[in-house]
C-alpha cells in the first residue's frame, strides 16, 4: 500500500491507498517539533483501528509546505515503513507537465499536486481554488501545466489577525450568516468574512478569465470549500480529496518512469 502525506502549514493529512481506493484518512496538527517516533505511535494506533498493519505500507509520497517538518516525515517512512519517500518539489520527483513560471520561481508543492489532480479530473483551462492557511488560485493551462495564480490570506488567518489587532473584537467561527447586515458584533464579523471572501473569489476568478480570454472551469478544495459553495454558483465542483488524488497520480507517474 501507498502512504500519502500532505503537510500543510496548519494540518498534516495521512491517507492509505490500497491500489484501488483510499482506505483511511487521518489529520493531525502540523508541528515541526513532532518526532518520527511520535508520528508512528499516533499513526500506527489509528491504522490498527482500521485493520491496517504497518507492514502493509511499502511506499510513501510527501507534499509539504512546511519545510522543517519534512525531515521527521522522511525519518518516519525510513525507520518504520522501510521505504524512501518521494517528495514533491524535489529534483527526483517528476511531474507529468512541468510548470511554466518565471525562471527561479519555486512553486509550492501543494499547488503542483492540485494542478495534476485537477487536470486529471477536469482537463485544462482550469482554476483550482484551495481554502487553506492561504486561499490560493492555481491556473492550469490546456496541456495541464501550472502557469501561475494568486495567493490571498486564508479565512482563518484573516479572522485571527483581526482578533489579534483589535482587542475589542472577539474571535468568531466561520459560518454563513443569515443576512449581510449584522445586528451584533459577532454577526458583523461573520458577515464581513463570509461575504468578503465570496466577493474575493468572484472577483479574482472573473479577472483570471478576462486575462486568459477563454472559458475556464473552477473547482474548489480545502476545509472551507463546501461552506463557500452553499447556495452559490461559484464552483463547478468541490473536491475534498483533490490533494490526495494528486499525490497518488504523481507517485504512479514516477513509478512508470522507473519501469
TrEMBL record:
UniProt: K(+) binding residues: 130
Location in or out of the cell: Cytoplasm
EC number(s) from the headed UniProt entry: 2.7.1.33
Report the cofactors: K(+); NH4(+)
Catalyses: (R)-pantothenate + ATP = (R)-4'-phosphopantothenate + ADP + H(+)
What is annotated as the active site?
110
Q: Name one Pfam family in it.
A: Pan_kinase
- Which InterPro entries does the entry link to? ATPase_NBD, Type_III_PanK
Major subcellular location class: cytoplasm
Q: Name one GO cellular component term.
A: cytoplasm
Q: Care to name a GO molecular-function term for this sequence?
A: ATP binding
Keywords per UniProt: ATP-binding, Coenzyme A biosynthesis, Cytoplasm, Kinase, Metal-binding, Nucleotide-binding, Potassium, Transferase
Q: Where does substrate bind?
A: 108-111, 185
Q: What does the record give as its pathway?
A: Cofactor biosynthesis; coenzyme A biosynthesis; CoA from (R)-pantothenate: step 1/5
| Keyword Cell membrane assigned | no
GO BP annotation list? coenzyme A biosynthetic process
Q: How is the cofactor bound?
A: A monovalent cation. Ammonium or potassium.
Binding positions (ATP): 6-13, 133
What does this gene product do? Catalyzes the phosphorylation of pantothenate (Pan), the first step in CoA biosynthesis.
Q: Which family does it belong to?
A: Belongs to the type III pantothenate kinase family.
NCBIfam families per record: baf (TIGR00671), PRK13318.1-2 (NF009844), PRK13318.1-6 (NF009848), PRK13321.1 (NF009855)
- Subunit record text: Homodimer.
Spell out the protein name for this chain: Type III pantothenate kinase
Taxonomic placement: Bacteria, Pseudomonadati, Pseudomonadota, Alphaproteobacteria, Rhodobacterales
Amino acid at each position: 500500500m501507498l502512504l500519502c502525506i500532505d503537510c500543510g502549514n496548519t494540518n498534516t493529512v495521512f491517507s492509505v491507498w490500497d491500489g484501488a481506493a483510499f482506505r483511511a484518512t487521518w489529520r493531525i496538527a502540523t508541528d515541526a517539533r513532532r518526532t518520527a517516533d511520535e508520528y508512528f505511535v499516533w499513526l500506527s494506533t489509528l491504522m490498527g483501528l482500521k485493520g491496517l498493519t504497518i507492514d502493509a505500507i511499502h511506499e510513501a509520497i510527501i507534499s509539504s509546505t512546511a519545510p522543517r517538518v519534512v525531515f521527521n516525515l522522511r525519518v518516519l517512512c525510513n525507520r518504520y515503513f522501510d521505504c524512501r519517500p518521494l517528495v514533491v518539489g524535489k529534483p527526483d520527483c517528476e511531474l507529468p507537465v512541468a510548470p511554466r513560471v518565471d525562471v527561479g520561481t519555486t512553486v509550492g508543492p501543494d499547488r503542483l499536486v492540485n494542478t495534476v489532480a485537477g487536470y486529471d479530473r477536469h482537463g485544462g483551462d482550469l482554476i483550482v481554488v484551495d481554502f487553506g492557511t492561504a486561499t490560493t488560485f492555481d491556473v492550469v493551462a490546456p496541456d495541464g501545466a501550472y502557469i501561475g495564480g494568486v495567493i490571498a490570506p486564508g479565512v482563518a488567518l484573516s479572522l485571527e489577525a483581526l482578533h489579534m489587532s483589535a482587542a475589542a473584537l472577539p474571535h468568531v467561527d466561520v459560518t454563513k450568516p443569515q443576512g449581510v447586515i449584522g445586528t451584533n458584533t459577532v454577526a458583523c464579523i461573520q458577515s464581513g468574512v463570509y461575504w468578503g471572501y465570496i466577493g474575493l473569489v468572484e472577483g479574482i476568478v472573473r479577472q483570471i478569465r478576462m486575462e486568459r480570454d477563454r472559458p475556464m472551469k473552477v473547482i474548489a478544495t480545502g476545509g472551507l470549500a463546501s461552506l463557500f459553495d452553499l447556495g452559490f454558483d461559484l464552483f463547478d465542483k468541490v473536491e475534498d480529496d483533490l490533494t490526495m488524488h494528486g499525490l497518488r497520480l504523481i507517485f504512479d507517474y514516477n513509478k512508470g518512469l522507473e519501469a
